[in-house]
Amino acid sequence: MTKLRLLSNNIWNCDTNKSAWEEKGEDCSAEARMPGIARVYAELRPDIIGLQEASHKMVDCLMTELGKLGLRYAVHWTRFTSVLYRPELFELVDSEYLCYPTEFPPYEGSFNDVRSKSCNLAVFRVKESSKIFIFANTHLWWRNRNPNAKSYQPGSGEARAHQVQLASALIDKYREKYHCPAVLLGDMNDTYDSPMMAAAHACGFTHAHDVAVEYACQENGYHYCFPDGHKPYAPRPFVYAIDHIWVKGFEKNAVRRFERYTPDYYEALSDHYPAFVDIEL
């Protein structure tokens, strides 16, 4: 039995310091924040990491900081959704990148600003056991589906559901090719009771939170950290979470733990706290 720790982390696309932070004597640049992100990975020791909002500068800084801590990861590059993995444990045997469409008829407007919303799929072989699995890292459309919200855009909930369907079709193509289980994780930008989640269930995915046999975190793992500053983490119930980990095709009881990591020092690093799963293959 191979034990895997798979982690999802939106690390906030912010390369340079902002005036509001500078006025407070703080720094939100990539150089300032990536040592803290590297510290998280040193403490959690994930085997594979799906990054969202990860600019090339941020990944470059992060890899440098990981090296300083003696942590060796390889990078599977894409635009904002790169994947880090431990090359001594895994062989990358196949991959595909899906950038979600900008348009979503009949709704008006863009549903993929700066081409940051995508699915980065990697097929890994465990070197020790030769077992194969799919790791798909995604970032879905961000605007709110609630008409009363400031960031409301009509069709946003439906667009996210459609993006889940596109990611699922991509994953199923590789599941058919390799006859293996799959994990789909990332910043889904919507809650547990959303059209996006309904689409995931319809596509055969199960939330790792719902099937974890040892522990399942009951918090949402999200707080205020933006160009105008940051605020302490005040946890809300799991149903309000927007970072999710879904599984498909694994054996019963394979998911051991579903967790969010919320150390105090993380407050000024990103608005999204890392979510991870311990799973057996």
List the helices and strands and how they pair.
Elements: E1 3-10, H1 19-23, H2 30-44, E2 48-52, H3 56-68, E3 74-76, E4 83-85, E5 90-99, E6 118-126, E7 132-139, H4 156-178, E8 182-187, H5 195-202, E9 206-207, H6 208-211, E10 215-216, E11 225-226, E12 229-230, E13 243-248, E14 255-260, E15 275-280
Parallel strand pairs: 1-2, 7-8, 10-14
Antiparallel strand pairs: 1-15, 2-4, 3-4, 5-6, 6-7, 8-13, 9-13, 11-12, 14-15
**Count of all domains:** 1
> Biggest sheet: strands, sense, closure?
7 strands, mixed
What is the typical, i.e. mean, pLDDT?
97
The CATH class designation is Alpha Beta
Rg is 18 Å
Identify the overall geometry: globular
Order of helices and strands: EHHEHEEEEEHEHEHEEEEEE
CA distance, first residue to last residue: 6 Å
Looking at CATH, the homologous superfamily is: Endonuclease/exonuclease/phosphatase
The low-confidence runs, each spanning 5 or more residues with pLDDT under 50, are: none
Tally of strands: 15
Strand content: 25-35%
Strand order of the largest sheet: 3-4-2-1-15-14-10
Reported CATH architecture: 4-Layer Sandwich
**Classification by helices and strands:** alpha+beta
CATH topology: Deoxyribonuclease I, Chain A
Q: What is the count of DSSP helices, taking H or I runs of 4+ residues?
A: 6
**Helical residue percent?**
10-25%
Question: Can you give keywords for this protein?
Answer:
281 residues, alpha+beta, Deoxyribonuclease I, Chain A, 15 strands, 24% helix
Structural account:
A hairpin with a 2-residue loop joins strand 11 and strand 12. The chain is built from 6 helices and 15 strands. The protein has helices at residues 19-23, 30-44, 56-68, 156-178, 195-202, 208-211, and strands at 3-10, 48-52, 74-76, 83-85, 90-99, 118-126, 132-139, 182-187, 206-207, 215-216, 225-226, 229-230, 243-248, 255-260, 275-280. It has a 7-stranded mixed sheet with strand order 3-4-2-1-15-14-10. Strands 5-6-7-8-13-9 form a 6-stranded mixed sheet. The protein is an alpha+beta fold and 281 residues long. The chain starts with a strand and ends with a strand. It has a single domain (3-280), classed as Deoxyribonuclease I, Chain A (4-Layer Sandwich), CATH 3.60.10.
